[in-house]
Amino acid sequence: MDYIYGVMAVICIEIVATVGLSVFTGFTGLFSLGHAAFMAIGAYTSAILTYFYHVPFVLALLLGMVMAGLVSLILGFPTLRAKLRGDYFAIATLGFGEAVRVILENLSITQGARGLPGIKHFTTLPVAFIFAVLVVWLTKNFIWSKFGRNAIAVREDSVAAEMAGIDLFKVRMLSLVYSAMCGGLAGGLFAHYLNFIQPVMFTSILSTQLTSAVVAGGMGSITGPVLAIALFIAVPEVLRVANMWRLVAYGLILVLIMVFRPSGIMGYHELSFEWISKIFKKNTRNKAGGKGI
Amino acid sequence: MFLQTLVTGLSIGGIYALMAVGYSLVFSILNFSNFAHGTIIMLGAYIGYFIISSFNLSFPLSLIGAVLGAALLALLNVELAYSPLINRRSPSLYLMITAMGVSIFLENMVYVTLGSHFYAFPEIFKQSNLKFFGSDISPLDLSALVFSLVSIYALHLFLIKTKLGTAIRAASYDMTTASLNGVNMTRLIGIVFLLAGAFGGLAGVFLGIKYMVYPTMGWITNKAYIAAVIGGLGSLPGAVIGGLILGLLETFVSVYISSTIRDVFSFSMVIIFLVILPAGLMGRHLEEKV
User: Fold this and answer.
1) Under an 8 A CB cutoff, do A99 and B270 touch?
2) Digit-coded pLDDT (tens) for B242-263
3) How confident is the model at residue B131 (pLDDT cuts 50, 70, 90)?
4) Which of A46, A78, A212, B59 is the most buried (most CB within 10 A)?
């Protein structure tokens, strides 16, 4: 029972980070290979605060989020201002992720590569679940706001969006900061769930996992990435496969999704009762001889 | 000391240039960053290593085997993973994600099947250093530099002098016009990937001799990508110059400042470069297409 409980808590924590990234990659259309760094920043900031300074848990989480957001400004300001091409930006985030890890390994307050043991256990399953629901709800509102509509316009056609008067830099920056803050929150929850953090936990493997989940779930859907990350964590646990096979599968999934269904599992749809009933209706219409889509 | 650092830097730069050529060739035609190239280089190194150690063949044969093997793998890569997307005219972001997927898949496939051992090439170049103006210069560094410059020059001649090379250059300017003039695009893309793979195999063998062969050695190719960006993606002379500059700067930073900040230095350099000179030193400035 403890085991299932643990897996579910990890899923809830990763949902927070994935949904945040889906705003950036899925809705704004920028590819990141370094979002694990924001999780690391959030994790270390909040863990140091609760461990050394005995700051209350929720406040520490908030400060971790703020820290991740501030660091994302440092990354975003030069790169987004220069309107880098998607792949240039991706390599910049890759470098950023590495730089953050190297710095964490060499600072004295983070205790370097040995890691930070003995963090208090605050993240229980209900706590993680509440945060996951909260972030999904916030993100949904975020996407349905004027900002979210602008972000989608930027993803679909940045030139046309700019012509229509959307400030590309502002939209991209805002979604980067939002995704970084979600990453920071997930990191903070993660640190207080595992009670131990180490820079090695936040390598590009984690970034890959997050990005794969967003792409596989559907770039333009919130529930799709949620579903994808849950599967990505749960399926290997059920099958008990080694960590490396998991990565082989991520790579293969990315390629297969791009070749056969670039819009991801959910496409632009959201998983809702309405949508499911609509599919069933469509199927019955198909059987009646109508032309399906 | 200075001269020694200079030669080491140049030889690393030469290997970076060999790898950067592969990125640039593909980018000039398809306008996307082929992140799977690093994995092809890694596989080339493995092929070279197994030919020389398992079959006891000579070094030139292993080099040829690595070049052919990597070229074929690159062709397979484009046929299986990229061509459905190219035919569908997908955005380059999708191609890039596919390339990432291919690289994650192959790299971890090697991890799972061959393990994370570090394989060292048998001694090919004599360990004894050449004395040159009072500083030690290793024959490996020197031959890596010479080999990469000669092969890149050969590629340059191929692109300038032959009909096929002209077709590649034409396609890099405007694919539609080139195909209207009778260039078979599917074949051309295949040939470009064959060439990129061949250079990747060559780079892989030298990289393997210098730093040993292991699954994540493709990580070094991120540096080559940086070199290609510095020189201007899509430009051949740019790849060479970018590679040499990056190799030199890195070696000098790790010798005279600190080797731990070397990678941070390269990555921050690419950000600075992209902000100031987005097209690189020699690249054309690519306008966003409306």
Assistant:
1) no
2) 888 888 888 888 888 777 777 7
3) low
4) A46
Q: How far is residue A109's CA from residue A173's CA, in Å, rounded to a whole number?
A: 29
Chain B nearest-CA distance from A187, in A, is 23
Q: A198 vs chain B: nearest CA distance in angstroms?
A: 18
Biggest alpha carbon distance in chain A?
70
Using CB atoms within 10 A of its CB, is residue B213 exposed (0-12), middle (13-18) or buried (19+)?
buried
Interface residue A96 vs chain B (CB under 8 A): yes
Q: Compute the C-alpha angle B84/B89/B93, nearest 5°.
A: 90
How is domain A2-287 classified at the architecture level of CATH? Orthogonal Bundle (1.10)
Domain parsing of chain B, residue ranges: 2-217
Q: Is B137 helix (H, G, I), strand (E, B) or coil?
A: strand
Mutation for B interface: A35, A84, A85, A157, most B CBs within 10 A: A85
Handedness of CA B167, B170, B172, B177 (dihedral sign): negative
- A29 contacts in B (CB within 8 Å)? 93
- CB interface of B with A, residues 78-117, below 8 Å: 81, 84-85, 90, 92-98, 100-109, 111-112
Our CA-based measurement puts residue B155 at a distance from the nearest CA of chain A, in whole angstroms, of 26
**Cβ separation of B104 and A208 shorter than 8 Å?**
yes
Write out the two tokens for B223.
């540096």
Interchain CB contact of B212 with A (< 8 Å): no
pLDDT the model gives residue B35: 84
A29 with B93: Cβ contact below 8 A: yes
A66-75, A203-212, B39-48: least confidently modelled range: A203-212
Q: What is the mean pLDDT of chain A?
A: 84
A272 pLDDT more than 70: yes
Domain segments of chain A: what residues? 2-287
pLDDT of residue A289: 46
Encode pLDDT of A219-252 as tens digits.
888 888 998 898 888 887 777 766 678 778 888 8
**How far apart are alpha carbons B164 and B233 in whole angstroms?**
21
CB-CB neighbors (< 8 A) of B94 in chain A:
258, 262
- Position B172 scores a pLDDT of 83
- The string of pLDDT tens digits covering residues B205-242 is 888 888 888 887 877 778 888 888 888 877 888 888 88
Chain B within 8 Å of A243 (Cβ-Cβ)? no
Cα-Cα-Cα-Cα torsion B192, B197, B200, B204, nearest 10 degrees, comes to -170
How many other CB atoms sit within 10 Å of the CB of residue B115? 10
Q: Choose among B25, B9, B12: nearest CA to B228.
A: B25
Residues of A whose CB is below 8 A from B111 = 244, 247
Q: Is the pLDDT of residue A283 over 70?
A: no
B106 CB neighbours in chain A (<8 A) are: 251
Q: Say whether A251 and B225 touch across the interface (CB within 8 A).
A: no
- Residue that is written with structure tokens 């009072």 in the block: B134
